């Protein structure tokens, strides 16, 4: 096995890896992606427990979640650009190593500042993993099986994000919050050892990384997410105006700095391709819709219906379970049918499922909740893999890193936007916040379906 790995990993994958090597390489990527995706979700559930043990106020403890998202969004595109220059394998292994080490630091944190610092590093490691994982799949799977590969990737991301609250609840029911992070350590070490042997080398671009551009990018996207969050919590104009102005300044500096570059870090060259732009819009709107549902529904289940956190986790499970069923099926179908049609159909289902959740009876039964969650899961699972294939297929091979970075940026920006909008909905009305959020989520999914079907008219 070792000899096979070494022989395969030393070659740039011309059209994917042989079947045995492909499975092990995919396993390494999947472990890394699942850890990064899970940690996006589980911290929300564990936040009260962490705040209590660290003697932190609820307002201060929110930084445990925010700093992770900020670090990921701010560094995704620089790592994607680095992957094109240094090789996706190196960036992936670096991300695995940093994420594993910082997970151990999170588990050993003794105060809120130490945990926030560790979460910052964990977010950077997660960004390195997520920025190149879809580009890595393009090297692992042959062209004729790319849809299947993206289906597996969609399954891992969707399941990890969806079952995060359930996993966190189960761990907290039997152990303390540091174990939420400690479980990553053995998984990360295994993924690193496996990745060193199984992940293929890829061709490297001739251009160099511009550190000034990377700094502008980090500030632009970091300030954007910070402004969204503060606006949702109705911060004062004295705070919002400087943040918004600084965001615009750094985006202007970023665009000016990379003007004329053959492979810009913020890949505006790819957005000139209608199929790529529509696919990115579809992804951002869909993940915003999912985020609004997954952030708001637990409040409804626990506060309105009186369910326990563990019961809430299991009520969310049908969505995750049907994503698991549908993602590989949709991936295989995307090798034969237009991603615009497949994604559009799935998003119509997602939007109708969110409307069905909005229209639930005042005292819904478990069956009332579960069939609606399952319908949403089918729609979401039907969208992901075809959309991934559309984004990556609309970019030239040498720009796979930039396309992969946009995949992750669209997902995380959508999730952060959805979470901010939920906060705003609850600021408007504590009792009707979930209803407002579900209505917005259904609207976002409907816009995403229109964008997806629009791809049928472009190339």
Describe this structure in words.
By secondary structure, this protein is mainly α. The protein folds into 2 domains: 2-210 and 261-457, MFS general substrate transporter like domains (Growth Hormone, Chain: A, Up-down Bundle); 223-260. The protein has 18 helices and no strands. It has helices spanning 2-9, 19-53, 58-61, 63-86, 88-107, 112-140, 146-174, 178-182, 184-198, 211-232, 237-257, 268-271, 274-304, 309-333, 339-358, 366-393, 400-428, 433-454. The protein starts with a helix and ends in a 5-residue tail after the last helix.
Q: What CATH architecture of the largest domain do you see?
A: Up-down Bundle
Count the beta strands.
0
- Portion of residues in beta strands equals under 5%
Distance between the termini: 42 Å
Uncertain residue segments: 1-13
- Give the number of helices: 18
Shape: globular
What string gives the helices and strands in order?
A: HHHHHHHHHHHHHHHHHH
Taking all residues together, what is the mean pLDDT?
84
CATH topology-level fold name of the largest domain? Growth Hormone, Chain: A
What is the CA-based Rg, rounded?
21 Å
- State the CATH superfamily name of the largest domain: MFS general substrate transporter like domains
InterPro entries: MFS, MFS_dom, MFS_trans_sf
Membrane topology: Multi-pass membrane protein
Keywords: Cell membrane, Membrane, Transmembrane, Transmembrane helix, Transport
Pfam family, one: MFS_1
